[in-house]
Amino acid sequence: MLDALGLGGVPVTVAVSLLVALAWFVSLAGTVLTSGAPARGGVFVVALAASWAGTRVLVRPLSRLFPQDRPATRGDFVGRVCVIRTGRVTADFGQAEVTAEDGSTATVQVRTAEPEPGLTAGRTALIFDYDAVGEHFLVAPFDPPSTGV
Hints:
By secondary structure, the chain is of the alpha+beta class. 32% of the residues lie in helices and 21% in strands. It is built from 2 helices and 5 strands; from the N terminus they run ααβββββ. Strands 1-2-3-5-4 form a 5-stranded mixed barrel. Strand 2 (95-99) and strand 3 (105-112) form a beta hairpin. Helix 1 (12-33) packs antiparallel against helix 2. The radius of gyration is 29 Å and the shape is rod-shaped. The two termini are 57 Å apart.
């Protein structure tokens, strides 16, 4: 709804706060500058219009401070290391646990492009592709480098 009014790009609380603050200021100034009931009735309409216009002007530069989050996709797991959770991974069977960028974990369906007898439970693998048709990830064995401490 805010986008339709030209006030999108910022959180609702920011847009509403600006609307209220500007309307209050314009109505306060309008009541001080005018006298009589008919003129003050017009102050209400002017305050609403001025607060909407002012908020619309202020929202544009403020929207750069609130970047739009990109929704997470399955492709975000490509390039990550996972841990095999099933007894084996074949061309048509397997699951692994992968950690997302935010620290959460997910159990995903994994497959191998070629038979890999070493991909068993507890082994690490590298996710190198996502098959959208089969809705699974392609993995290859991966041994993380030792730190040699």
